[in-house]
Fold this protein.
Amino acid sequence: MKDKLQKIVRPADLIVVAAVLAVAAVLWAVLAHLTGTTAQIVCDGEVIATIDLSAVKEAYDVTLDNGVTVRVEPGAICFAASDCANLLCIHAGKLTRAGQSAACLPNKTLIRITGRDRRGPDALTG
Ligand SMILES: [Zn+2]
């Protein structure tokens, strides 16, 4: 019985397995790209910044004209500082997934993560 099992695994089968794994890897890469997290900073109803979070290598802060500071991190975005009274925006914490959003109503500022990935320069050059 053991002999038979060993004969079943031939080099050709390994190639098939490798091909399946390669296809799976490509699919994963495509899906990861499609679901790539794109963040938007919306101020007073206007999108003032669109950031591809999957391309962010190091965290940085964006300070807006209204005094709100938004922190951009690899794969995440959050309010870092604001002069509003209740600081609900800060307490909202980090957004990491498509569909999530946080707002600072007193400053009319919204951050959100959209699922759609814009067609833009590829990050393969890094
Ligand atoms: Zn706020």
